[in-house]
Design goal:
Mean pLDDT: 91
Strand content: 35-45%
Number of domains: 1
Number of helices: 1
Radius of gyration: 23 Å
Strand order of the largest sheet: 2-1-14-13-12-11-10-9
Low-confidence stretches: 1-17
Shape: globular
Order of helices and strands: HEEEEEEEEEEEEEE
Structural class: mainly beta
Helix content: under 10%
Number of strands: 14
Length: 212
């Protein structure tokens, strides 16, 4: 205990002598995108399938976050596993999940690496394509394929239109449809059975507060 005290004392005395002070680490803050304004304290209230209310909410502050970004199969010359992490940054948390602009953090599960990566949620580029989530495709590609189809003006807001489909599995006849309004966020989400022309799922924005 005495050694620890002496070490701290020496550091403090050294700082006083050269006029310096311990440097404070400054972290970057990842601000929300225009069509996904997840500012701290923001919330959205949705009506789901005309009978259930769902609230999406953002943390009350930006939180410091980093994630492991090295897979299990990275080893050094001595055979030791190399584990690295992303830079720590402040990000908002939407429904308890960190949001990096238009990206979320997705887990790449074993045996594919056991690490995390940034994964797109949407984009402002028409024609941009991505998969909704990471999927283990060893037994078939069940992933939802999403494309930014258009940016329109509905008379009030600029709106991003996203459409999704499935190439394999039980959802192959279904299509998804999403609208993201600028400065508001997700306003509408549908899943439609294209064979029977049935609406399988419907989510509609009924109230919101964006704390920008």
């Amino acid at each position: 205990m005495k050694r620890i005290f002496v070490f701290i004392f020496i550091v403090l005395v050294s700082c006083e002598k050269d006029g310096s002070s311990p440097k404070e680490i400054v972290y970057d803050t990842i601000k929300p995108g225009n069509y996904l304004p997840v500012y701290p304290g923001t919330w959205w209230r949705y009506l789901v399938n005309d009978k259930m209310i769902v609230i999406d909410s953002v943390s009350m502050e930006y939180r410091l976050h980093s994630y492991r970004n090295s897979p299990d199969y990275n080893y050094d010359e001595d055979g030791d596993l190399i584990i690295t992490y992303s830079d720590s940054v402040y990000v908002p948390f939407l429904n308890s999940q960190p949001i990096y602009g238009y990206f979320k953090i997705e887990w790449i599960m074993p045996p594919f690496g056991n690490y995390y990566t940034k994964w797109p949620i949407l984009s402002e580029t028409v024609g941009f394509k991505f998969e909704r989530n990471w999927e283990d495709k060893r037994f078939g590609d069940f992933s939802e394929k999403v494309e930014v189809k258009n940016i329109i003006f509905n008379g009030i807001d600029s709106v991003l239109i996203l459409e999704g489909h499935w190439a394999y599995g039980p959802n192959v006849a279904n299509k998804s449809y999403q609208e993201f309004a600028k400065g508001i966020g997700l306003t509408k989400e549908l899943i439609i059975d294209t064979v029977n022309l049935d609406t399988l799922s419907k989510k509609r924005l009924i109230d919101y507060f964006v704390n920008d």
